[in-house]
Amino acid sequence: MLTLKGEHIYLRALEPEDLDFVYVIENDEQIWEMSSTQTPYSRFLIKQYLENAHQDIYEVKQLRLVICTIDDAAIGLIDLFDYNPTHNRAGVGIIIAEKVNRGKGYGAEALQLIIQYGFTHLRLHQLYANISEDNLTSIKLFESRGFRKIGVKKDWNHINNTYKDELLYQLLYVH
């Protein structure tokens, strides 16, 4: 099992026992905007997803890890998605589920661990993130870890009857 440890959190592979945790996150309408989701997920579909979560990143082009506190409480998820081994890049997404756990540095530590994993183990050349223009917390988080804004996708997402820009952030591996 893949485990990446930091000072206050660790990242681990998804387990069947994560069904309820993932179900709550995937069905939280407040974060649907970040994941471009429009419909809820059933427990059945999430159970199927968890049964296949062991598949290799080279096969499914995605790696989802659970962010856990040192006392083993699952508090969030971090993803590498759109993994492209030809061009050595992947997207990064992160969510800390409960507001009570936000602003404590857990997200920054998780992001640093996934950056190190991506550049060291996957030999990525770049990571990128798509962030809504009004998600100031994520902008601050990614910028704190060296990501730079490289572009703006104008009127990219239609949310609550309004078009919002999406910002493209990128982190290049420097040898």
TrEMBL record:
Keyword flag Transferase: yes
Gene3D superfamilies in the record, alphabetically?
Answer: 3.40.630.30
Statement: the UniProt record of this protein carries the keyword Nucleotidyltransferase: no
The alphabetized UniProt keywords are: Transferase
N-acetyltransferase domain span: 9-174
Q: Which InterPro entries does this UniProt record tie to the protein?
A: Acyl_CoA_acyltransferase, GNAT_dom
GO MF annotation list = acyltransferase activity, transferring groups other than amino-acyl groups
Task: Give any Pfam family that matches.
Answer: Acetyltransf_3
Q: Which PANTHER family match?
A: GNAT-FAMILY ACETYLTRANSFERASE, SPERMIDINE N(1)-ACETYLTRANSFERASE
Q: What's this protein's name?
A: Diamine N-acetyltransferase
Q: Taxonomic lineage per UniProt?
A: Bacteria, Pseudomonadati, Bacteroidota, Flavobacteriia, Flavobacteriales
